[in-house]
Amino acid sequence: MYFAKEVLDQCSSLRVQWEDQVRRLINRKGERKEVFSTVSDHEIKRLYTPEDISELDFERDLGFPGQFPFTRGVQSTGYRGRLWTYRMFSGMGTAKDTNERWHMLLREGQTGLSTAFDFPTLMGYDTDSPKALGECGKCGVAIDTLEDFQILVDRIPLDEVTTSMTINPPASVMWAMYCACAEQQGVSLDKIGGTIQNDMLKEFIAQKTFMLPPEASIKLISDTVEFGTKHVPRWNTISISGYHIREAGSTAVQELAFTLRDGMAYVEDVMERKGLHPDEFAPRLSFFFNSHIDFFEELCKMRAARRIWAKVMRDRYGAKNERSWWMRFHTQTAGCSLTAQQPYNNVVRTALEALSAVMGGTQSLHTNSLDEVWCLPTDHAVQIALRTQQIIAEETGVANTIDPLAGSYFVEKLTNEMEEQAWEYIEKIDSMGGMLAAVEQGYPQMEIADAAYKYQQQVESGERVMVGVNKYVTEEAEECPILDIDEAVEQSQLQRLNEIKRKRDDKAVKRALDEVRTACKKGDNVMPPCIEAVKALATEQEICDVYREVYGEYQDPGLF
Amino acid sequence: MADKTLRILVAKPGLDGHDRGARILARAFRDAGFEVVYTGCHQTPEQIVNAALQEDVDCVGLSCLSGAHKALFPKVVDLLREQGADDIVVVGGGIIPKQDMPYLRERGVQEIFTPGTPLEDIISWVKTNVSPRDEL
Predict the structure, then answer these.
(1) In 3D, which of A248, A87, A176 has the Cα closest to residue B22?
(2) Using CA atoms, how far apart are residues B8 and B10, in angstroms rounded to an integer?
(3) CB distance from A219 to chain B under 8 Å?
(4) What does the DSSP assignment read for A346-398?
(5) How many angstroms separate the CA atoms of A340 and A10, rounded?
(6) Which CA distances in Å does A527 have to A171, A198, A226, A534?
(7) What are the phi and psi torsion angles at A63 (to 5°)?
(8) What is the mean pLDDT of residues B6-12?
(9) Which residues of B are less than 8 Å from A557 in CB distance?
(10) Shortest Cα distance, chain B CAs vs residue A293, angstroms
(11) Predicted local distance difference test score (pLDDT) of residue B135
C-alpha cells in the first residue's frame, strides 16, 4: 500500500466535500469544456488524489533509478552523472556539405552525431537511378559509395564521437561503410560506437521507407544484430522507433504499444534465427520516441515504456542481465506539432516538448528547428534548436534531481493508465500471431490512420487548438529564411559517381557482389561480404539490387 | 454535370514515404462524396499518369514532403499533356517553400496547398475548380 488506510479515508471524505463545492460552482459558471483530454484523446480528470494511486506499490512500480523496473530511469545517478547527449539530426546536399554542418555543430557544443540521408540513399538507390529524380541531397545527405562516406566522416574521430544513422532497408550497407571508414582511420570495430535505426517493422507500419518484404527485412536486421554482438560491442544495432509511428498520426499509447511490440518481434527473431540468448544482444537494443506537445502524456509514456520493457525482457524472454532490462532511448520533438504559420512559435513548442522528454529521462535528444515545416533547417535555426537543449540542461535546474515528477498523483496515475492500455494492444497483437502477422493484416496501419483522421477532424473543428492555424491567426504571413538545396548538388554527385565507376576494378566489384548474393541465398550473415563489397567500391544500389533480386520487393498496399 | 461524381487520384510521387497528409485527404475526399483512387507511396510520374488515365480521373492531387517537388510535379503535368490529358487538373501539397510556388504554377500545377490548410478549403477548391471530363 502506497498510502495508509487512514490517509485514504481522510482523502475520500474531503473529496466528497470538495465535489459538492465543485458542483455548486459548475452549476453557476460551468467549465471551459465538457471533456478535457490529452492530445491523444485520453480523458483527464479534474483532480488527482492519493485515491487514484492507492494500488501503487512503491517497490514494484517505482523503485529507485537504476533499479528494476526502471520507471525512474536506467542510470542510478540520472542526469547528475551525465547529461543527455545533444544529438542533432542533420544531413543535406553532398557529403562535404554535411561534414561542414557536423563540424559546426560539434564546435557549438553538440555531443553526438546523427545522420539524415536523402531519399535515394534511404531507399537503396544511387543518385543516377531514374527513381532518384529530383531527390539528390534534398532531405539529407547523398551517399552512393564508400568515397562519399569517407568525406562525410572526414576529421571526425570515430573512436571518440558516436554516430547515429537513420537508415533502414540499406542499414547493413551504410553500417558496412562506417565500419570500413573506421578501419581506414585505424580504429578497430570494438572501439566504434553509434546506432543504426534498422527498424523495418515501423517502416511497414508508418514511415514507408521499405525495400524488401517483411520477412526478408527482419532476416537482415537479425544479421546486423548478430554481427554487432560478435564484432561491434559498443554499437546499438537497432533503434526501435516510435517516432515515425507518432508522426504518422498515432496516439501516444499506440506509439508506446506498437514500438514495444516491434522490439519484442526483433528479440524473438534473433533468439530463433540466430540462437542467441537475450543477454547477448538485448543490452544493445535502443529505442527512439517522439515528444509531442502534450507535456504530461509524453513524459508518462516514457516512464511507462521503461517499466514495460523491463518486465517484458525479464519475465517474457528470461533475460538475467540488468542491462537487458534497460530501455535506453533517444527522443525527437514532434515535427508534426510544428506549424507553417507563425514559424517562430515553433521554438516555443520545441522547447516544451524537449523539457517533457527530459522529464521522461531520455538518453539523447534532437530538437527540431523552427523552419522545418518549410525546408531543411538553416544554420541559424539549428543553432537555436541546439541552444534550446543547452538552456534546459544548464540553466533551468531541471537536471539537478532524478525523475522530479515522480509521486505526483496525476503523473503516476497517467503512467499506470498508459501502461495498462499499451498492454491491451500488446496482448491483442499477441493474439493475432505477433507483430509481423498484425502488420501483414494492416492492423497497426489502420489503427494509426483512424487516429490521424480523428485528430485532423478535431483540428478542423477547432476542438484541438493549434495556435496560429485555427486560433490567434494573423493576417500577415510571417516568413522565416529558407534553406535551398542547389540543383548543382545533383550534378556534382553524378559526376563523382561516374568517376568512381570509371576508375574502380569492375571485376573485383562483381566478385564482391557475388559474395553478397551467395550469402543472401544461403541464409548466411550478409555483413562480412557487405563490408568487402563497399571496400571494393560497389555502390549502395548495386548491393541493394542484389538484395532485391534475391528477396523480391515490397510494394505499398496503399491503405487509407 | 452535377450528377457525375468527381474522380480524384491522390498520389505520392518520388521516394518520400510521408503519407499522413495524402491518406487523410484521400479519406476527406471520399467523405466529401468524391470517388478516390490512392496509389500509395513511391510512384514515378509515369506510374501516376498511367493510373490517372486508366482510372479516368478529373483531378490529380500530388503530395511530396521530400523537397523533390520541383522535379516531380511538372513532370506529371508534362506527361499528362503528352497523353492529351491536359484537362486533368493537377494540384499539389506537402513541404513546399513559398519561393517555389510561382515556378510550380508556371509549370502547370494549378494550386498548392501548404501545411495547415483546412481540409474544407481544399475540398471546396476542388468543387469550384474541377469539373468532370466526360464529354471527350
Answers:
(1) A248
(2) 6
(3) no
(4) HHHHHHHHHHHHHHTT-SEEE---TTTTTSSPPHHHHHHHHHHHHHHHHTS-T
(5) 51
(6) 10, 13, 9, 11
(7) 65, -155
(8) 98
(9) 40
(10) 16
(11) 53
Nearest-5° Cα angle at B5, A559 to B9:
35
Instruction: With H, G, I as helix, E, B as strand and everything else as coil, classify residue B120.
Output: helix
**Pair A350, A391: CB distance under 8 Å:** no
- Written as one letter, the residue type at A285 is L
Type of residue found at A350: T
Residue with cell 523496473: A69
CB-nearest partner of B27 from A132, A479, A560: A560
Mutate to test the interface with A, among B9, B20, B62, B107 (most CBs of A within 10 A): B20
Judge: A452–B99 Cβ closer than 8 Å, yes or no.
no
Nearest to A560 among B15, B26, B95 (CB): B26
Distance set, CA A100 to CA A95, A107, A175 (Å): 9, 11, 21
Q: Cell numbers of A29, please?
A: 459558471
The DSSP symbol for B98 reads G
The pair phi, psi for residue B97, each rounded to 5°, is -60, 145
Helix (H) or strand (E) holding B9: strand B7-11
Q: Are the C-beta atoms of residues B17 and B66 closer than 8 Å to each other?
A: no
pLDDT computed for residue B2 by the predictor: 52
User: In the numeric block, which cell numbers belong to residue A140?
Assistant: 539529407
Residues of chain A with pLDDT under 70: 1
Residue with cell 504518422: A248
Answer whether B75 sits within 8 Å of A469, measured CB to CB. no
Q: Do B27 and A449 touch (CB under 8 A)?
A: yes
Q: Which three cell numbers stand for residue A47?
A: 483532480
Q: What are phi and psi of B35, to 5 degrees?
A: -90, 125
Q: How far does chain B reach from its first CA to its final CA, in angstroms? A: 13
Instruction: Count Cβ atoms below 10 Å from residue B125 Cβ, excluding itself.
Output: 16
User: How much is the pTM?
Assistant: 0.96
Phi (first) and psi of residue A234, to 5 degrees: -95, 10
Q: Is the dihedral of CA A189, A190, A196, A202 positive or negative?
A: positive
**Chain B within 8 Å of A138 (Cβ-Cβ)?**
yes
Looking at residue A267, its amino acid is V
- Residue B40: closest CA among chain A residues belongs to which residue? A558
Query: Using beta carbons and an 8 Å cutoff, which residues of B are at the interface with A?
Result: 10, 14-20, 22-24, 26-28, 38-42, 44-45, 65-72, 75, 95, 97-99, 114-116, 118-120
CA distance A560 to A445: 9
Q: How far A239 CA sits from the closest chain B CA (Å)? A: 19
Of A77, A11, A140, the residue nearest A2 (C-alpha) = A11
User: Which among B16, B27, B69 has CB closest to A119?
Assistant: B16
Contacts of A249 in chain B (CB under 8 A): 20, 24
Q: What confidence score (pLDDT) does residue A487 get?
A: 86
Amino acid code (one letter) for B20: R
What CA–CA distance (Å, rounded) separates A338 from A346?
A: 6
Angle in degrees, CA B117, B120, B125, rounded to 5: 85
Q: End-to-end distance of chain A based on CA atoms, in angstroms?
A: 47
Inter-chain residue contact A374 with B72, CB threshold 8 Å = no
pLDDT per residue over B68-81, tens digit each? 999 999 999 999 99
- Look up cell 553532398; give the residue: A94
Q: Is A131 exposed, middle or buried (0-12, 13-18, 19+ CB in 10 A)?
A: middle
Q: Looking at chain A, which residue has its C-alpha nearest residue B11?
A: A558
Asked if pLDDT for residue B20 goes beyond 70, the answer is: yes
